[in-house]
Write a structure and sequence with these properties.
UDP-N-acetylmuramoyl-L-alanine:D-glutamate ligase, 12% strand, alpha/beta, globular
Length: 185
């Protein structure tokens, strides 16, 4: 397969993410080092990506990884270290290494992207990972990780078929990122 075909194959993995606990169990089994990366999680309707970018500018850490979705121009933008997207050859190396698991476990594109980002972050020993929630909060794949802090931007009517039909239901779904003892903004 060419790189373009691999990206197209990954982007065709549409579906609902598994419960975060199941993804965490897989990560603990296969890539436990990724669960030790200090991270901050950002949820909301609009402004998540901007908030992650802003936080990466302000963070007092030498090596900062960011995970955002969707991308504007290239799939590689979804994962960056110090504002530099993953290189195509590195993306392909990680994809090829873990494709067997993506297939066996039927990971969605978002789950596989998260997996690949965390592998890359661990390899580069990032000091801090800033993680943008894809959809919702409590059921989002990014919630499989541990966090130093969490934050929510504005709440609006988005993904109503999955999160609920009222602002209250949507806010409750997004608030699923909050955990006891973890600062929330």
């Amino acid at each position: 397969m060419t790189l373009s075909e691999k990206i197209a194959a990954l982007e065709s993995r549409i579906g609902i993410n598994r419960p975060p606990g199941q993804l965490r169990k897989l990560m603990k089994q296969h890539i436990p080092e990724t669960l030790k990366i200090p991270a901050i999680q950002v949820a909301g309707t609009n402004g998540k990506g901007s908030t992650v970018t802003w936080m990466s500018e302000l963070a007092d850490s030498p090596i900062i990884g960011t995970f955002t979705s969707p991308h504007l121009f290239s799939h590689f933008e979804r994962m960056t270290i110090n504002h530099q997207p993953i290189q195509a050859d590195k993306w392909e190396e990680i994809y090829d290494c873990w494709l067997w698991l993506f297939n066996r476990e039927h990971l969605t594109m978002f789950e596989a992207d998260l997996w690949m980002a965390m592998v890359w972050f661990a390899e580069n020993r990032v000091d801090l990972a800033l993680m943008e929630v894809g959809m919702g909060g409590g059921r989002d794949a990014t919630t499989a990780l541990d966090y130093l802090a969490t934050g929510i931007t504005n709440i609006g009517r988005d993904h109503m078929q999955y999160l609920g039909s009222t602002l209250e239901e949507i806010a409750k779904a997004k608030a699923g990122i909050f955990k006891p003892g973890i600062p929330a903004l």
